[in-house]
Design goal:
The complex is a heterodimer. By secondary structure, chain A is α+β, with helices and mostly antiparallel strands. Chain A has one domain: Pleckstrin-homology domain (PH domain)/Phosphotyrosine-binding domain (PTB) (PH-domain like). Chain A has one helix and seven strands. Chain A has a seven-stranded antiparallel beta sheet. The longest helix of chain A has 23 residues. The mean pLDDT of chain A is 88. Chain B is built from seven helices and nine strands. In chain B, the strands form two sheets. In chain B, strands 3-2-1-4-7-6-8 form a seven-stranded mixed beta sheet, sandwiched between helices. A two-stranded antiparallel ribbon of chain B has the order 5-9. In chain B, a hairpin with an 8-residue loop joins strand 2 and strand 3. The chains are: A alpha+beta, B alpha/beta.
Chain lengths: 115, 274
């Protein structure tokens, strides 16, 4: 059985979208589905069955690409400062990268397991 | 709030250039306009804007556009949305060359500068308001969207928020969304909880404060005799060329075809190859 997963993430369509193109969403993986909801209103934007997409990590810490039958979505669990900038302090940046990697690992595990 | 916009044309001529210059000059600091020339039926127009590849930003829609043989007939979103996403502004306008305003453009845009709707467009109607709209036949949506929630709009003049541009590009990765973007855009915006408003007119999404203003267009009751914004009638001269041909001041008009053949379902504005 797939483990449930829920976290906030930055999402944009494309493999490597510009930072300005990202928006924050609530992302949830249930035993059957991947769901994206808006953080402001919790309105659904995407709700697709597991098994209809593939997911893989990409280079940036916390980032991965979900491929929906040829349509890539970049999902990034990394925390950013206002304006989408990475933290300037090295320790803070490293801590955020670590949390991003952990969230990504948990997401990939949940999203690519099969019920 | 900052605003930027795209002026989209599939023809280039001195008359269209003058129309664009009036738009830029009269908009002033309200909207930062960019000229975009769609030189063929694809989704990569000629423009100074640097945007992500439409085949990545809207991959599923782009593939459908290619099967369709071009953006004409419902896939202009594959051209517009990547460009809108590239603009550095909060409010993102798109206007086609055949939209005109019987007045000073700043008088129009000033009315919306403080409006926080995510989608402002025209002729927003529910399915039950216009059952005979021809593009319902090709429409499709994911199972979490009921057909009773389907909307249609007419988008030669529209404004989107940055979050809506992002959400639309993300949502359209689901191949269950199918059909004309005048269906997919307002429907996705509405079912995802974005604020959707008609720019004016007299429809179900027209705020009371703008009822009967901005334009005259189709309503659930049908096509009004004095329609200014719709499929017809076609005007042949811009407002700056012949203001007396625009019977009501302070309204937007569509279509204005300055030496350009009118859109038909047979030709669908497929570009000349000459």
């Amino acid at each position: 059985m797939t483990a449930p997963f829920a976290a906030a993430a930055w999402v944009a369509s494309g493999q490597s979208p510009r930072a300005a193109a990202r928006q924050r969403y609530h992302l949830r993986v249930t035993p059957q589905r991947l769901q994206l909801r808006r953080t402001e209103t919790s309105g659904t934007v995407l709700d697709v069955a597991l098994g209809t997409f593939s997911a893989r990590a990409i280079g940036a810490a916390g980032a991965c690409v979900v491929d929906l039958q040829g349509a890539p979505l970049c999902i990034d669990f990394t925390e950013y400062d206002a304006g989408g900038a990475v933290a300037r302090a090295p320790l803070r940046r490293a801590a955020r990268a670590l949390r991003g990697r952990r969230a990504r690992r948990a997401f990939l595990s949940a999203a690519t397991s099969r019920p | 709030m900052t605003a930027a916009g795209i002026f989209l044309t599939h023809r280039r001529s001195p008359r269209i250039r003058r129309h664009f210059r009036r738009l830029v000059e009269e908009s002033g600091s309200l909207v930062d306009w960019h000229f975009v020339y769609s030189h063929d039926t694809g989704a990569r127009p000629t423009t100074s804007l640097v945007a992500d590849d439409p085949a990545e930003v809207l991959a599923t829609r782009h593939a459908a556009m290619e099967r369709n043989g071009g953006v004409q007939g419902g896939y202009v979103d594959t051209l517009l949305l990547p460009l809108l996403r590239s603009l550095a502004a909060d409010q993102l306008w798109a206007i086609e060359y055949d939209v005109d305003y019987a007045g000073r453009w700043s008088d129009l845009f000033d009315q919306f500068a403080d409006n926080d709707a995510d989608l402002l467009t025209t002729t927003l109607l529910r399915r039950r308001d216009q059952e005979q709209w021809p593009w319902w036949a090709s429409a499709g949506s994911p199972s979490w969207v009921a057909e009773e929630q389907w909307l249609r709009s007419l988008n030669p003049l529209m404004r989107l928020s940055r979050p809506l541009v992002n959400a639309y590009c993300v949502a359209m990765a689901d191949p269950a969304w199918r059909g004309h973007y005048e269906f997919t855009l307002p429907t996705l915006a509405s079912v995802s909880g974005f604020v959707v408003e008609d720019l004016g007119g007299d429809g179900p999404f027209t705020p009371d404060a703008r009822r009967g203003r901005i334009y005259v267009g189709r309503t659930p009751a049908g096509r009004p005799d004095d329609q200014t914004f719709g499929f017809r009638p076609v005007r042949r001269r811009y407002f700056h060329e012949r203001p007396e041909a625009f019977p009501r001041a302070g309204l937007v008009y569509h279509p204005v075809k300055p030496g350009v053949p009118a859109w038909t379902r047979e030709t669908m504005n497929v570009r000349d190859t000459t």
